[in-house]
Design goal:
The chain has helices spanning 9-14, 21-37, 58-62, 64-67, 83-93, 104-116, 121-134, 138-163, 173-179, 190-202, 258-264, 276-280, 285-295, 312-319, 341-349, 355-361, and strands at residues 2-7, 43-45, 49-53, 97-101, 212-216, 233-237, 298-303, 324-330. α7 packs antiparallel against α8 (138-163). The chain has 2 domains: 2-18 and 171-367, no CATH class; 21-103, no CATH class. By secondary structure, the protein is of the alpha/beta class. 44% of the residues lie in helices and 11% in strands. The protein is elongated and about 90 Å long. The chain has 16 helices and 8 strands.
C-alpha cells in the first residue's frame, strides 16, 4: 500500500514562507512604491500599470524637471501593501495624477486582494476566459494569455527570492511524523476494508507505506526537506519547479465545468493555451503519477492544498481512482481555535462525481489533525 501526499500552498505557508498570491501582489506594490519614489518623469509605466499626470500641457512639461512624480517622495515612509495604499497617497497629495491597470485581468486580481484579502489568480484567469467566450471576443483570449504570461514571469521571479530562504532547519517534525506514519485502520473507506483487512491483521494493525509520493503542486523546494535519509519517498513536481522555469504549469484545470465545454466547442486553440490538461502532455510527470496510482492501493494525504476547482480534473482522477482507499485532509488551525476542515471537505466534494464514494473515502474529522500542531 502506498501513500500520495498532495502538497499545496498552505504547506509552504506552514513553514513561514510568504508564497501566497496575495503576498506576491503585495510585494509588487512595495517594489512599485520604491520605483515611483525614484521616478523623475511625468509618467511611470511597467507591465501592469500606468501612473502619471493627466493632460500634460506644454506649461507642465516645461516645469516637469521640478514636478515629475515628486508626490511620491515620501511614500517610502508609509507602509505599502496594496494598490489602495498608493491610490490613497495620490488622493491625499494630488488631483492631477491617476493610477490605472493596463488590463482587466490585473485589475480583477487587485480587486480580489482588496475585498477578500486573498486571490486565486488561476480562477480569475478562467473567469475572464469564460467571459471572453460568452461575449464572442476571440481576440481577447490572446490578450488574456499574454497578461497571464506576464504575471507568470513576475511570479517566478518573486518565488525565486522566497525559495532562496528555504533551509534544512525549517523542517517541521510533526509534519515529518505524519508523512511517515503507519496506516490507521480508522482511516480506511468502508468499501475498502474487506479487501484490506487481511493486510492489517497480518501486520498487527500497524504498518507503514511501501512508498510515499509527495505530489507537489508548489513550485518551491520545501517538499524536499522531507526526503532526506529515506529510500521509499519521492517527489513529483506536477506543476514544474523553479529549478526548471520552463516546466512550470500556470493556468486552469477544470474540464468538468460547463463553461469548459463551451470553450472546447469554439474550435479556437487560443482558449486552450493555458488549460493544464494540455500542459501535462508536454512532460512525463502526469504519466508517472498515473503509474503510481495504478501500481497498488493508496491513501491520499492533503497537506496545504485547498482542493479548489483550478486543479479539479487532476484531483478527480486521484480521488475517484479504484485504488484510492482513503483521503485524509490536514486542516489549518486558526489562532481563534476555528479551522478550515469543512472548507477543504466541501472543496473535495466538487472533485467527485459519486458523492456516496466521497463520503466513504474522506476521513472523519475525529481522526484528522491540523497540519501544524
Amino acid at each position: 500500500m502506498n501513500r500520495v501526499v498532495i502538497i499545496g500552498n498552505g504547506f509552504d505557508l506552514a513553514h513561514g514562507l510568504k508564497t501566497s498570491y496575495a503576498e506576491f501582489i503585495s510585494r509588487y506594490w512595495q517594489n512599485t512604491a520604491q520605483k515611483l519614489a525614484s521616478c523623475n518623469l511625468l509618467r511611470y509605466e511597467d507591465e501592469f500599470i500606468i501612473c502619471g499626470y493627466n493632460n500634460i500641457t506644454p506649461e507642465l512639461r516645461l516645469r516637469s524637471q521640478g514636478l515629475a512624480l515628486d508626490l511620491f517622495d515620501d511614500i517610502l515612509y508609509t507602509p505599502v501593501k496594496s494598490r489602495r495604499d498608493i491610490e490613497e497617497h495620490i488622493k491625499a497629495h494630488s488631483s492631477r495624477v491617476t493610477l490605472r491597470a493596463k488590463s482587466t485581468f490585473f485589475d480583477n486580481i487587485n480587486n480580489s486582494v482588496e475585498t477578500k484579502n486573498w486571490v486565486d489568480i488561476e480562477n480569475e484567469y478562467y473567469s475572464l476566459l469564460k467571459s471572453i467566450e460568452e461575449n464572442g471576443l476571440s481576440q481577447g483570449a490572446c490578450e488574456l494569455n499574454n497578461e497571464l504570461e506576464k504575471i507568470k514571469i513576475a511570479l517566478i521571479e518573486y518565488l525565486h527570492s522566497i525559495n532562496a530562504q528555504i533551509s534544512e532547519n525549517m523542517m517541521i517534525s510533526s509534519i515529518s511524523e505524519q508523512i511517515f506514519a503507519p496506516f490507521n485502520e480508522c482511516d480506511i473507506a468502508t468499501k475498502s476494508l474487506t479487501s484490506l483487512s487481511s493486510i492489517f491483521r497480518q501486520n498487527s494493525k500497524s504498518f507503514t507505506p511501501n512508498s510515499i509520493l509527495l505530489l507537489n503542486f508548489n513550485y518551491t523546494n520545501t517538499a524536499a526537506l522531507y526526503t532526506k535519509g529515506s529510500q521509499n519517498i519521492s517527489i513529483n513536481h506536477i506543476h514544474g519547479s523553479l529549478d526548471n522555469p520552463e516546466s512550470i504549469i500556470f493556468g486552469y484545470g477544470d474540464e468538468i465545468d460547463d463553461g469548459y465545454k463551451k470553450i472546447v466547442n469554439l474550435n479556437d486553440n487560443n482558449f486552450l493555451s493555458n488549460i493544464k490538461t494540455f500542459k501535462y502532455l508536454e512532460r512525463d510527470n502526469y504519466r508517472k503519477l498515473l503509474q503510481t496510482l495504478d501500481s497498488m492501493p493508496f491513501q491520499v494525504y492533503i497537506m496545504g492544498h485547498s482542493c479548489g476547482n483550478s486543479d479539479r480534473t487532476l484531483l478527480h482522477t486521484i480521488f475517484e481512482h479504484p485504488n484510492c482507499f482513503s483521503i485524509k485532509p490536514y486542516y489549518h488551525l486558526r489562532e481563534d481555535g476555528s479551522d478550515n476542515y469543512n472548507d477543504i471537505v466541501q472543496n473535495i466534494s466538487r472533485n467527485f462525481s459519486d458523492m456516496v464514494l466521497m463520503r466513504d473515502r474522506v476521513v472523519n474529522k475525529l481522526f484528522c489533525k491540523p497540519l501544524v500542531f
